Amino acid sequence: MSRTDEEFKEYLGTYSDSFCGAKWYNATVWLGSGMTTSCHHPLPHKIDAEAVKLNPKLLHNTPEKKEQRRQMKCGERPAGCEYCWKIEDMGKQFTSDRVYKSNIYTDEELTTAFNAPVEEDIDLRTLEIAFDRTCNFACSYCNPAFSSTWVKDLKQHGGYKDLISDGRNHFTHTHPEAQLYKYGEENPYVEAFFKWWDSDLHRTLRELRITGGEPIMAGELWRLFDWFKENVDKSQTKLAINSNLGGKADLIQRIVDARVWLPSLDVYTSAESIGAQQDYVRDGMDFDLWWDNIRMLHEAKIDTHCMMTVNALSLNSLPDLIEKILQQRKEYNTRNFAVFSLNILRFPSFQSCLVLPAHIKRTCIERLKEIDLSQCHQFEQGQVTRLIEYLQSVEIPHSESFEMPKLLNDFKNFYRQYDKRRNKNFEETFPELKDWYNSL
What we know:
Elements: H1 5-12, H2 22-25, E1 26-30, E2 35-37, E3 45-46, H3 51-54, H4 63-73, H5 82-88, H6 97-102, H7 107-115, E4 126-130, H8 148-157, H9 188-204, E5 207-211, H10 219-230, E6 238-242, H11 249-258, E7 265-270, H12 275-281, H13 287-299, E8 303-310, H14 318-332, E9 339-344, H15 358-370, H16 378-393, H17 404-422, H18 426-429, H19 434-439
Parallel strand pairs: 1-4, 4-5, 5-6, 6-7, 7-8, 8-9
Antiparallel strand pairs: 1-2, 2-3
């Protein structure tokens, strides 16, 4: 029986006020660095390289996660899950990702998780992995930990300077700890994944999502594809790829061709604005090529999803992208082209949409309210409503944020350096922000 978001939220509360199925059944694992987290909101933590050789399930079932499960069973709020608590504290009418991420699991699975001993290793149902950080993009809000192109930037120009609020020093060094092994070297985390995969993960896992970096540039992706080709019908795991879709058509065609021997394939991509403004933020992107590629995949009957990272420089044309997607849905006569989510950027804080002046946020709010969402899924409608309320009521990105003058200082200092390094021009690309930007 299907339930509304509100009904499922009430059901989730019968376990505890902080219970989230993702803490048991979902994981993101960066195999290049040996880091993991339960979803994309909590900060990642280290996996023991020696222990995982003996028990590959420790890629997910770390001591940290087991402690967080204990807290959730007691109704306590794990500190790392602050994103959801902030949304829930906005009011009962707002739905956090804790609800959405739990709703993909059955009632039986949720009951089993809640009743399982805390020390038990839980078999994953959904998993996101990154084989390495190789990437042809260097998006402004990304960093060298996730992009080899960002690494090249810092090696060529040195670290960014005078960023007061970048407490994690994302932009000051190349983050060698994020890529501990070169391609071809024995990586205990990669080998643990394939060992777990061969033994039973290919049976228990409902969905496997490969991210990066840019996954289609990772040799291990094609190693996994070869496993499916050699073991047709052995696994029913749904496969998904997080790709920037910045490759030429022949590379995208390689994905289309691989679909023949895969149980299923979805492609998740990212954009949050259009044209030159999108190309500015996602350095390396050609928006028109991206749009052609996402249509190519859809026409090959590969479901596409668009994850929008809502940041300060996306608000002006974010409504344009949503409207462009909805217009394309009308032409295809489907709701399933580029199904979108609105993920509100919190790190780095100085690129949060909350740093913008009130009139820019108001303009975005007004435009979002004007969009006809009848072609949207309920989930998408909820995401738009949530963003509107976030822009209206939330004042700081997260509890660790610096005060606004420091965030504005970093905004200006970062994009001045970004322009020089990337041969870009903030004022020409964002004329609606020019006066405000020059006043900082």
